[in-house]
Specification:
nine-stranded mixed sheet; 38% helix; 331 residues; alpha/beta; 10 helices
Length: 331
């Protein structure tokens, strides 16, 4: 059968094979029931297999491990939770900082495809003003060449591929073990995915050299389960070599042993501005490595609540307002 699941349940974000419904919207609910009844046997099997995979991987031992890890991290800080930053600006001690910014979903809104995430000119001008009073670094999941090309701001630091490539102001540095070997294997994975996922409309496969992103924001609801099934059937055999994570409508494929965003933040901070307080703003799962890296030593700000960050903004629109606050400029 097909699982219809309330979008308000805790499992809604985990069980990607279920059909999410708003139980208070009777029209939508009835449409989802109708759609479920019209699924053929292949679609039903695909959805069930996908949910079985998720339940198998995230069993009780997975949740216990996550819980104990969180307890170990948070215990020294007495279970401190994320607070709305504009309620706490005075107590956050935001003077003498080095500013770290994620790009997609932070400096720009989340959009259907990566090429549409264009930095607004007013945001670019604001960052240029900020760099005159504090060091600024942009830490992105995009390739280093791509993020530098679209931002086009001199005299700031950049980290691409989630921290495995860094521009330190004068040269490019690749961080990680056996990158050349993993690049070749990653190329094979991407070729397999391109071939298998070709019939599914809306899939965007982003080859970033060191890592890859598989975007499925534009994939139709009826094709999602088939897409997940094909994706995992290919990538499962590479889990020993690659770290595969999911974010906001995207799968990230990263070689094990390469640097993540937290590593890049720590390296830039220690090397160029250790006397300053690191402040990091991000919006997605991969930004949690950065929050962990500066926990107790800096200020982590997420867009939307996140128990790994110290503070949060309510929406991406508030990033500009907060950067104006940092710069001392009027809104």
């Amino acid at each position: 059968g097909i699982l219809l699941l309330s979008e308000f349940t805790g499992a809604a974000e985990e069980l990607e094979g279920a059909i999410l419904v708003n139980p208070y919207d009777t029209e939508e609910f009835s449409e989802c029931i109708k759609m479920a009844l019209e699924f053929d046997d292949d679609e039903i099997s695909c959805r069930i297999n996908n949910m079985r995979r998720q339940v198998k991987e995230k069993d009780i031992y997975h949740w216990i491990g996550d819980f104990l890890e969180e307890a170990a991290i948070l215990q020294p800080y007495q279970m401190k939770k994320s607070h709305y930053i504009f309620d706490c600006c005075k107590e956050a001690a935001m003077d003498n900082i080095i500013l770290f910014l994620d790009y997609d979903g932070t400096l720009t809104p989340i959009v259907e495809s990566p090429d549409r995430a264009i930095l607004p000119q007013e945001m670019r001008s604001l960052i240029i003003k900020l760099r005159k009073v504090m060091p600024v670094a942009i830490i992105s999941g995009r390739s280093l060449a791509n993020i530098m090309d679209i931002v086009k701001i001199d005299d700031i630091f950049y980290a691409g591929n989630h921290g495995s490539e860094i521009w330190d102001g004068s040269r490019v540095i690749e961080m990680g073990d056996q990158l050349s070997e993993s690049k070749e294997t990653l190329g094979n994975i991407i070729a397999e995915l391109r071939y298998s996922l070709l019939p599914i409309q809306g899939v965007i496969i982003e080859d970033k050299g060191i890592t890859a992103s598989i975007h499925f924001r534009m994939v139709g609801r009826k094709d999602l389960c088939k897409m997940f099934d094909l994706f995992w059937s290919i990538t499962d055999s590479y889990k020993g070599l690659f770290r595969i994570t999911s974010g906001k409508k995207v799968f990230e494929i990263r070689p094990r042993g390469i640097w993540h965003k937290g590593d890049a933040v720590t390296w830039i901070w220690n090397k160029f501005a250790y006397s300053r307080t690191p402040l990091y703003i991000g919006d997605d799962v991969t930004d949690e490595d950065a929050y962990r890296a500066i926990k107790g030593k800096g200020i982590g700000i997420s867009i939307g609540t996140n128990n790994k960050s110290d503070y949060h903004l309510k929406t991406q629109d508030e990033v500009k307002k907060f950067l104006l606050y940092l710069s001392g400029l009027p809104e």
